[in-house]
Amino acid sequence: QLAKEDARIRYFAHPNHGVSYTRNRGIDLAGGEYLCFVDCDDTLEKNAINTLVGIMEAEDAQLAVGTIETVSKYSAIRFGFEPCVLNMETPDEKFLKFIFEVRSSSGYMAAKLYQSRIIKENNLRFNLEICYNEDALFTYSYLGHCRRCAVTNKVVYFYNRMNENALTGAIGATKDKRYVWETMKIRSQLDLFARAELSKDDLEYVQQSILRQFKYMCLCYMRVSTEPEEDITRMQVCYGELLRGTEGNEQYELLYMPACEVLACLAAEENARTKQTRFRRILSAIKGKFQFWKRA
After folding, report:
1. Where are the alpha helices (DSSP H) in the chain?
2. For residue 71, what are the β-bridge partners?
């Protein structure tokens, strides 16, 4: 109906092939200067596009980022970051926190405005082979082609979490692949920094952020696991793949070795008598490694 009333609006439909296929088709069909992605059950704040375009143009940025507010049966939670301009070419402490803080919206597709030219010139597309973290992989790849990123703490996107059962069930059915998808996300984060000149404090912050993600992944997946030994093997394979091609890069080794050492802790405890005992020992080992890096 809107397309009939406004010539600027074009409407396309196709059989359901998943979000990545649909977003890629949108990229190919789009003719405008900017791109903004909105899922079908979410909504934009009425001035969202104006807000994002405004900060992008005012700051000569290639990416504009707003705040997400979740809509659920329980409470409203916001994911965002303090207003700032981030320099991609010389990442500082603020940029690191933007990428790694739990409540940051950096890894979400939502609440962002992209430049169509950058996406098309660098042939950036969503990976059709994955259905988890695909938005983070795309966004971090895009950031690798940016000079500046403008951030506002204004809410521009309302994320509907009223019914997540279908997606949760689909992800649970492909648990073995989630290890791969999680490590792909971590690798894409590290690729933003692994060749930057990080200070000792910044490097320690990245190490601990990566370890926190890895610990969360291990404990979440193994807590519901009926095959913990196989899960440990899957994680070892994933991190082996992460290290592929990084030989000789000292900073990569500093960033990845903590996770690999935790894998050794997991493997050492796989024969613990009970699952509870194994988790206690794993947590203790990880905590000890945090302290070791802090002293180093």
Report:
1. 2-5, 19-29, 48-58, 93-100, 116-121, 134-143, 165-172, 175-191, 200-223, 228-243, 250-268, 275-295
2. 160
- Give the integer Cα–Cα distance in Å for 235 and 228: 11
- What is the DSSP annotation of 184-247? HHHHHHHHTTTTS---HHHHHHHHHHHHHHHHHHHHHHHHT-S-HHHHHHHHHHHHHHHHTT-T
Q: What is the pTM of this model?
A: 0.79
Could you give the CA distance from residue 281 to residue 275 in angstroms, rounded to a whole number? 10
Count of other CB atoms within 10 angstroms of residue 137: 22
- 18-69: pLDDT as tens digits: 889 999 999 999 999 999 999 888 999 999 999 999 999 999 999 999 999 9
- Say how far apart CA 106 and CA 70 lie, in whole Å: 15
